[in-house]
Amino acid sequence: MASPFLAIDIGNTRLKWALYDAAHPGAALQAHGAEFLDHIERLADGPWADLPAPGAMLGCVVAGDAVRRRAEEQIVERFDCAPRWVVSSAAEAGIVNGYDHPTRLGADRWVAMIGARHRMLDAGPARPMVVVMIGTAVTVEAIDAGGKFLGGLILPGHGIMLRALESGTAGLHVPTGEVREFPTNTSDALTSGGTYAIAGAVERMVQHVRSHCGAEPACYMTGGAGWKMAPVMNGDFELVESLIMDGLLVIAQARG
Ligand SMILES: Nc1ncnc2c1ncn2[C@@H]1O[C@H](COP(=O)(O)OP(=O)(O)O)[C@@H](O)[C@H]1O
Ligand SMILES: CC(C)(COP(=O)(O)O)[C@@H](O)C(=O)NCCC(=O)O
Ligand SMILES: [K+]
């Protein structure tokens, strides 16, 4: 019988976790949650206290070694399974890594591309892809129809953009505004500026992929703030909250 599988994604803002009934794509989600990094120590005695024990876990972490160790303490304290973390490599689960130094690619980016490729092939014939993650930072990846990661953009996320503007100016200390085509107050101008900066970068990457690959890319969006960006995107963007968890399930199955 299959045993439960624990997937963990540790970004620079939050640790996201999901427990599945087995370690393969399409497995049933049994429980999930997210903790800000300051609250990782609550996991074992809090949200994880009543979970069935996973037979294995796999995660990705870009938040640094100290945070990874704090998460490992919780995993080991609560569950009898070894912490395992994905490291970006030259090739895995259908994606070939075009980075100059493949292991320097953020593991979350690598895993999300693997999840997206699996989803795209499930839906139909192979196409190029643009994979966008809206987290603490924003990443915009280009993948060709053969599964080669061509390269990607890194931008500041909404929060970092606003904090940078606040700390670098005298007059920009205002509450969050609305996204407007023609903002007429400072709050709306800041919120709209950040949103359209991201949307514009994504649109450029879609153009680059379209002309490089000669085909319309399948476009996926994920990350904690993906729901804020998805409504303003031009073109067909599929919002998939679980893209990283999906990628972890694909990798776990491929590794057996
Ligand atoms: N409920 C929420 N809690 C925390 N951040 C949120 C929430 N909803 C949206 N966000 C936005 O999502 C971003 C964090 O997304 P997340 O995917 O957790 O990032 P990371 O993977 O970098 O830890 C924050 O910068 C914030 O703007
Ligand atoms: C780009 C990132 C900071 C994104 O982090 P996140 O927003 O998910 O917290 C992370 O993937 C990272 O640290 N990458 C390493 C550098 C690189 O991918 O080139
Ligand atoms: K992330």
From TrEMBL:
SUPFAM superfamilies per UniProt: Actin-like ATPase domain
Biological pathway: Cofactor biosynthesis; coenzyme A biosynthesis; CoA from (R)-pantothenate: step 1/5
Top EC class of this enzyme: transferase
Keywords annotated in UniProt: ATP-binding, Coenzyme A biosynthesis, Cytoplasm, Kinase, Nucleotide-binding, Potassium, Transferase
Residues involved in substrate binding: 99, 106-109, 186
Major location (coarse): cytoplasm
Reaction(s) the record says it catalyses: (R)-pantothenate + ATP = (R)-4'-phosphopantothenate + ADP + H(+)
Record EC number: 2.7.1.33
Active site feature: 108 (proton acceptor)
Highest taxon listed in the record's lineage: Bacteria
Ligand binding (ATP): 9-16, 136
Family annotation (InterPro entries): ATPase_NBD, Type_III_PanK
Cellular location(s): Cytoplasm
CDD domains named in the record: ASKHA_NBD_PanK-III
Pfam families: Pan_kinase
Free-text cofactor note: A monovalent cation. Ammonium or potassium.
GO biological process: coenzyme A biosynthetic process
GO cellular component, one term: cytoplasm
Swiss-Prot/TrEMBL cofactor(s): NH4(+); K(+)
Family in the record: Belongs to the type III pantothenate kinase family.
HAMAP family: Pantothen_kinase_3
Subunit structure: Homodimer.
Name of this chain's protein: Type III pantothenate kinase
Species assigned in the record: Variovorax beijingensis
Lineage, opening ranks: Bacteria, Pseudomonadati, Pseudomonadota, Betaproteobacteria, Burkholderiales
The gene coding this protein: coaX
